[in-house]
Amino acid sequence: MQSTEDTIRSVVQEVLAELQKKNNGTSVPKRERQDGDWGVFADTDQAIAAANEGFAGLREASMEDRAKIVEIVKRICFEQSEELGKLELQETKVGRLEHKIEKLQIIKKVPGTEWMKTDAMSGDHGLMIVEYAPFGVIGAITPVTHSLPTLAGNVINMVASGNSMVVNPHPSGKKIACEGVRRFNRAIYAATGLQNVVTIVSEPTLESAERIFQHRDVKVLCVTGGPGVARAAMASRKKAIVAGPGNPPVLVDETADLDNAARSIIAGGGYDNNLLCIGEKEVFVVESVFNEFMAAMDRAGAARMNSSQIDQLTKAAFSPPENKDDHWHLNRDLVGQHASVLAKHAGMSLPESTPLLFGETDEQNPFVPEEQMMPFVPIVRCRNADHGIDLCEKYEHGFRHTSLIHSRNVRTMSTMGRRMDTTLFIKNGPSPAGLGLGGEGYLSFSIATPTGEGVTNPMTFTRQRRCVMVDDLRIV
Ligand code: NAD
């Protein structure tokens, strides 16, 4: 006679054998790869059609498969960060290598399937559940400032919630974006048998973007970029999740820890040569601590420029608007360049390791109103905290993106927080702290600002579906 232990063992073995059989049969289906080069398509319609098939595959796949895809994207970004970071810098020619690499390594902080949830209510009439379902194919537009990191973060968020994705990358970051898509799809196919979970247009243009915006099989748009693409997406007839431009102001008041403020501004404003949309772009300092703050910036390792050097840099970095009310024109050749390169335009010779340039300007200097994406931050005097908040509000331009304060006065923090109404409001730390990097929270490279979804996560890309069982299934 079999002992109880033997009986349990043989039942477990049978179940395991059955599971193994099932897995071998279904988890890697023997399908041939579709057209295209692992998700890279010259033709926009083909890229959309393939993403649609990718979505069909995902609908049949398990939550475990989605989790595998998330892990694959994180692993590739982490393990291949040096090679991919170098490729990104070679192609885009903006930013700093160490930060290009780091931005790929931190992709592991982007939330995945663990964020998916189901809501439930039970009552006299039974049970109601709300499931968070995918939309289908999401059309994504990615910026040159973080081409592959944005794409990778979007794949993690969108696939975790069951969507597939078609990408129109920035033309100056298309090669690295396509290479990422190839590597992701190859590994995803090997692990799950799923294909074209993410597809990409290899020669992106405004027309290919427009085709994605208009195509009926693309259900939602997620655009990450400046004012032009933000406007275009919001003018389309689709639901658009818009991660738009910013011009983050910083207020330093008389109660601030000035050394911490200086270190933070250098860490955030100098990151990847100030390419981050959340990066510190202009600083307003209360007059009574202005000189002390400038000395703290010297101590913390930023390079100070005098007014004639700032004039020379400003002339190299901007050309004046045709009409007084228009924008200054940014010299794109200087965007994302090292502080040492900018300094040369002002006749200064600095080591390549210099993280940031700074100097006193008035508020009319174009570095204040324009989102310059260069490692020079203008420092402007203000009479007091209230005046500083007025200036911050004025030069954030109502983007409602990011603002920062260095203060120990809770009342001033609250006043500024209410007045700015920005998606991120960071106190006493560098801007990346607002994305879970040294502060609490989680990471995404797409911060939806005008459309209000905030720091995007898997739940951002879901639609609610309610399922009701009348008068039953309630167990208490
Ligand atoms: P960009 O606006 O020049 O380009 C962004 C993307 O939009 C590119 O793929 C580009 O080809 C496309 N595009 C531009 N105009 C378009 C139009 N009319 N129709 C369709 N597509 C269009 O920006 P960039 O220089 O690549 O990136 C920097 C900008 O992006 C900054 O303004 C920055 O603040 C913003 N950004 C925002 C976030 C965020 O999360 N909110 C993140 C990164 C960057």
UniProtKB/TrEMBL annotation:
Keywords associated with the record: NAD, Oxidoreductase
Molecular-function GO term, any one: acetaldehyde dehydrogenase (acetylating) activity
Keyword Transferase: no
The keyword Oxidoreductase is annotated on this UniProt entry: yes
Domain Aldehyde dehydrogenase: from-to ranges: 42-429
Pfam families for this protein: Aldedh
Top-level EC class as recorded in UniProt: oxidoreductase
InterPro entries xref list: Acetald_propionald_DH-rel, Ald_DH/histidinol_DH, Ald_DH_C, Ald_DH_N, Aldehyde_DH_dom
Source organism superkingdom: Bacteria
EC number(s) from the headed UniProt entry: 1.2.1.76
PANTHER family hit by this protein: ALDEHYDE DEHYDROGENASE-RELATED (PTHR11699)
Record's protein name: Succinate-semialdehyde dehydrogenase (Acetylating)
Organism name: Rubinisphaera italica
Lineage, top ranks: Bacteria, Pseudomonadati, Planctomycetota, Planctomycetia, Planctomycetales
Gene: sucD_2
